[in-house]
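lol forgot to send this yesterday, sorry. struct tokens for the thing we talked abt
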């Protein structure tokens, strides 16, 4: 890999110095209502980043923070990559915005062509949006509209999975299975049901890669068919590897079995690859990695290396073809966003794909995975650890919950890691690791050494 990153801290500027003064002396402004954040705790002890390059962030004060989470599962090529930065700046100067309804910009078509070349064979139509949440909702709308357009309008039911995460729009939290997201916002969309999750601690603890047990859980879909009838079910949406609920690789044979059942009953299969897309498992997509092709695939995060918001749904041609009827002046699929295929996002994505190709990053995780796996599993036996899971360049260390305070031990671990110069992602009491795909052995050693020290200190 041609690594050209300068890992020294970027030079400070006056704006960063002002932020540093705020971080050192005063609590951050109350005007910003932070997402998915324990805001009161944050205001007492802010965790601010002001610069980033390669594998690292730097705080406003200049303290180095190793990024063991790829930002938020998205900075796959590392931070501040020159080609991506240059492409965004040049695009902003050339074409800042183009309306996406009945007009377009050339880079949208160029990007779509490149994406379908990376996608599994048969997935060759790309619909752009702005996030993983929007991609999930778009895919579900496509599925329902597809069946209606082909004369099976009774197929409106959506099947998700417990411990699934498909973003935060109402569609996503309805098919998702994260309790915290669901209980806060009252009734979800109707016509939704859920498969059981695949996490089986009793049989699969400390699995390396895909767990041996649980393929039969795909048969839950047959139970759904028996309950609702196949004629009412539009689609099943799952993450090939559930990420935000604790890194849950699919049991061996599970995805293949689910694909077979969907085919049997005429149900569309949607893979949410917002996290697994663009090299995280050692292949361009998890669908490629597992050899299972869905009918619709959602992507985001790594599509632009996290630099500009973007999402996409990659669909089979026959799905789009069904819509191509009726008067030519009427939109065939009445859906989209103001910022669909935004010129800056397209430019960032094209430069991101070029960076991935230049450095072999879409397959690099497969080469690094054995060393990463051994390192992560070396934490077995550490204080409070009850399970370790890994696949590709994703790892999870599940901690025993504090009675009466679920999630507290995981939160404390995240804060302690920050204090020791490392950023990790926690979900409940699980520490999730997903370093940028440029990670080297020295970074892996530092991640594990930091975690060993942190685990010893947790109450």
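and heres what i got for the seq, position by position
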């Amino acid at each position: 890999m041609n690594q050209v990153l300068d890992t020294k801290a970027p030079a400070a500027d006056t704006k960063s110095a002002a932020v540093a003064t705020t971080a050192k002396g005063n609590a951050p402004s109350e005007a910003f209502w932070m997402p998915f954040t324990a805001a009161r705790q944050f205001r007492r002890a802010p965790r601010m980043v002001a610069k980033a390059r390669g594998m690292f962030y730097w705080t406003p004060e200049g303290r180095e923070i190793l990024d063991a989470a790829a930002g938020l599962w998205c900075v796959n090529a590392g931070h501040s990559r020159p080609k991506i930065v240059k492409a965004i700046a040049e695009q902003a100067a050339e074409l800042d915005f183009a309306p996406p309804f009945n007009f377009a910009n050339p880079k949208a078509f160029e990007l779509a062509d490149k994406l379908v070349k990376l996608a599994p064979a048969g997935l060759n139509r790309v619909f752009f949006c702005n996030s993983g949440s929007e991609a999930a909702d778009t895919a579900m709308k496509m599925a329902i509209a597809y069946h209606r357009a082909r004369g099976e309008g009774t197929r409106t039911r959506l099947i998700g999975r417990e411990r699934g995460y498909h973003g935060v729009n109402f569609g996503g939290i309805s098919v998702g299975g994260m309790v915290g997201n669901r209980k806060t916002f009252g009734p979800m969309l109707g016509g939704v049901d859920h498969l059981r999750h695949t996490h089986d601690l009793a049989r699969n603890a400390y699995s390396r890669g895909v767990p041996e047990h649980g393929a039969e859980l795909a048969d839950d879909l047959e139970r759904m068919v028996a309950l609702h009838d196949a004629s009412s079910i539009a689609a099943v949406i799952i993450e090939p590897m559930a990420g935000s609920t604790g890194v849950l690789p699919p049991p061996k044979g599970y995805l293949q079995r689910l694909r077979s059942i969907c085919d049997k009953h005429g149900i569309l299969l949607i893979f949410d690859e917002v996290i697994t897309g663009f090299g995280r498992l050692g292949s361009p997509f998890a669908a490629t990695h597992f050899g299972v092709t869905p009918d619709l695939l959602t992507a985001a995060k790594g599509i632009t290396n996290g630099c500009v918001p973007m999402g996409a749904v990659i669909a089979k041609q026959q799905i789009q073809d069904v819509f191509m009827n009726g008067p030519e002046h009427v939109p065939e699929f009445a859906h989209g966003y103001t910022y669909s295929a935004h010129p800056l996002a397209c430019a960032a994505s094209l430069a991101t794909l070029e960076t991935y190709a230049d450095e072999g990053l879409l397959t690099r995780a497969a080469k690094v995975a054995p060393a990463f796996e051994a390192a992560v599993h070396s934490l077995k036996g550490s204080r409070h650890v009850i399970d370790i899971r890994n696949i590709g360049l994703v790892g999870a260390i599940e901690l025993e919950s504090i009675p009466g305070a679920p999630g507290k031990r995981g939160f404390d671990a995240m804060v302690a890691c920050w204090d020791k110069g490392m950023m990790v992602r926690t979900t409940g009491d699980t520490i999730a690791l997903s370093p940028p795909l440029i990670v080297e052995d020295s970074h892996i050693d530092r991640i594990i050494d930091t975690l060993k020290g942190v685990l010893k200190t947790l109450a």
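The CA atoms of residues 429 and 445 lie 22 Å apart. anyway ping me if u want another try
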